[in-house]
Amino acid sequence: MTDLHLLNKLVHATSGVFAVSLGLVPLFTRKGSRVHRIGGWLFTAFGAVVLACAVIGDLAYPQPGPLLAVTLSAAYQYVSGLRALPRTAGALNAIDALLALATLFLAAALAPRMSHGDIS
Fold first, then answer.
1. DSSP labels for 31-52?
2. Helix (H, G, I), strand (E, B) or coil at 83
């Protein structure tokens, strides 16, 4: 099982490097251009792999509370960012409110897991 955990961490870290690197493409290309869109899609895909590996690691292997909190925060940011992409105007809807409430609930559920040694 250690080999699977090592593989998960390797895929997580490698995908993270690719995601951060590819995240520069949309930032430095003309919005709406083909390169901008492809770079954005690749950034999003590698970000999904990073997040999936984090969730797998959190569920399959014991993790300290702060790592669980970081995964929760990253998941919320990732999903809400994806939901915001197609919006040009318009208010948030019930799904957005439910995502925020679910995140707050899970964060509150994590609080008892935090000990004084890992309170960060």
1. TTSHHHHHHHHHHHHHHHHHHH
2. helix
Q: Which residue has the tokens 């970081």?
A: 70
pLDDT tens track for 5-47: 899 999 999 999 999 888 888 888 888 899 988 988 899 899 9
What is the C-alpha separation between 61 and 82, in angstroms, rounded? 28
Distances from the Cα of 32 to the Cα of 21, 35, 37, 43, 93, angstroms: 19, 8, 6, 15, 26
pTM across the whole model: 0.73
Q: How far apart are CA 102 and CA 96, in angstroms?
A: 10
CB-facing half-sphere around the CA of 23: CA atoms within 13 A: 10
